[in-house]
Amino acid sequence: MEGFLEYAHDKFLFRVKEGYRYSRDDFWADIQGDVAVVGIADFLQKARGDVAFLETAAPGLTVTAGQEAGKVETIKATFGILCPVAGTIIEVNPALEASPFLINEDPYGRGWVYKVRLGEGDRGEALLAADAYLKLMIEKVLAEAAQR
Amino acid sequence: MLNIAVMKVGVVSCSGEELPGGTVSRLACRQVLDGLRPHETVTICLPLFIAGGEEERRFAATFPTITVDGCEKRCAQRGTEKLSGKPAKSLVVTEILAQRGLALPTRRRNLDEGDRAGVLAVAEEIAKAVDEVLGS
Amino acid sequence: MSTGRKSVVLLPCSGIGKVYGAVARETAYEVVERVRPGVTALTCLPLLVVEDAEALSLVKGNPVIAIDGCQKECANKSLEAHGVQAARHLHAIDFYKSHKDLKPEGVAELNETGRRLAALAAEEIASLVDECLAKGGAPC
Predict the structure, then answer these.
(1) Which chains touch B (3 or more CB pairs under 8 A)?
(2) End-to-end C-alpha distance for chain B, whole angstroms
(3) Would you say residue C140 lies in a domain?
(4) Do A13 and B8 touch (CB under 8 A)?
(5) B44 close to B126: Cβ distance less than 8 angstroms
(6) Residues C103, A101: C-beta atoms closer than 8 Å
(7) Pairing verdict, β A68-74 and A51-56
(8) How far is it, in rounded angstroms, from Cα A25 to Cα A44?
């Protein structure tokens, strides 16, 4: 089983799950054949705070990579769920309706958001591998810290 | 794990609700964290620290801590000593206010101007303690 | 607190880093100071953890309403660690979910909207307090 790449800044430990692929907008995709499980990366959920409300897209919606499919409202911000892959949403994580905080508690596992049947020719190649995303994530962490 | 270590100090506030000293402790700590020493300090949430918060405990095991207690029961100091070792400095609100000749607020919230002078005095002492820890 | 008469203890999480910690705290103050004074009491969560005798006696001898500020649930976990089951376990974020027009802000001190949210939450908690008192300290 793959583990995590980790980066510690102050008391925060930011994790990047190995084996997943990542968009530059901080969403992850676990490509399993022609279906991708997608969710919100650890950095983004930590940066935006505890999820209060979640508005998800319905199964059947066809999306392009980077398209907004739903919204997350935390106490700090409201942001769009930017699907990292192109395809058709075939399932929404049912556990999130009662427990949206799973996105905070287990962003790479039980906090998954959608399963997407991948469109023609998209196997997530445009996404970043874990080690490349780690570098980007570190830049973002340092940039946010510098703004304080 | 990759860690670019920048020396910071963890500030552990008692944050107790029962007494006005807890309010002063909490407000003073936030003043330091948000205003007086924002790049040199990190807040350690005491309840989370005690309840097993992984991030809180990891930080306190690696970096120096300053505890700020609202009363002589010294929960922040005792909790920190128990879980990660002796804090670099331990401050108590009632002692600081007494040294400065300031009265402890009589209310737990809706502090007035006089009360806030006490908060600032405590914040200044915390900031001084941070400088001493980082300088040593 | 009068001896021989039950009080309901409000135990907010004492969290310092999140706005919901401030909401939990302000709500507890509203209940104890304004909405149900005289029949409710507050204690500090850190006192339980350092095993303060008076604080432990208070929570073991009276029904407790725990109000947590986040999913780490420090208040409830600390009670459980001492063999106490909360009469009610509330999450401050649920107060906001029920009153979406009152978005609280501020970590050390709540803004005006946050204080209004806490005041409303306290009014709603009042009925829980009454229920606990009516049951004479039995689980409510």
Answers:
(1) A, C
(2) 27
(3) no
(4) no
(5) no
(6) no
(7) antiparallel
(8) 9
CA atoms within 13 A on the CB side of A50: 19
Domain with C87 in it: what CATH number?
Answer: 3.40.50
Q: How many CB atoms lie within 10 A of CB A90?
A: 13
Per the structure block, which two tokens stand in for B10?
Answer: 């963890």
Q: Give percent above pLDDT 70 in chain B.
A: 95
C2 falls within a domain: no
Which of A5, A8, A148 faces B3 most closely, judged by CB atoms?
Answer: A8
pLDDT at B54: 79
Hey, are the CB atoms on A9 and B4 less than 8 Å from each other? yes
Beta pairing class for B89-92 and C8-12: unpaired
Q: Mapping DSSP to helix (H, G, I), strand (E, B) and coil, where does residue B109 land?
A: coil
List the one residue out of A125, A98, A118 whose CA is nearest residue A37: A118
Q: In Å, how far are A5, A102, A130, C55 from A2, measured between CA atoms?
A: 10, 20, 11, 45
Task: Using alpha carbons, list the distances in angstroms from residue B40 to A36, B23, B34, B47, C90.
Answer: 42, 22, 10, 22, 35
DSSP H stretches of helix in A1-148: 42-48, 95-98, 102-105, 130-146
pLDDT digits over C81-135, tens only? Answer: 899 999 999 999 999 989 989 999 988 889 999 999 999 999 999 999 999 999 8
Sign of the CA dihedral running A61, A65, A66, A72: positive
**Degrees, nearest 5: CA angle C79-C83-C85:** 60
CB proximity A105 to C under 8 Å = yes
A53 close to C (CB below 8 A): yes
Nearest to B33 by CA among B78, B66, B62: B66
Is C95 within 8 Å of chain A by CB? no
pLDDT reported for residue C14:
79
**Sign of the Cα pseudo-torsion (A66, A68, A69, A73, in order):** positive
The answer to whether C70 and C96 are in contact (CB under 8 A) is no
User: Does the interface predicted TM-score (ipTM) exceed 0.90?
Assistant: no
Range of the domain at C79: 8-132
Domains of chain A: residue spans and CATH: 4-142 (2.40.50.100)
Domain count, chain C: 1
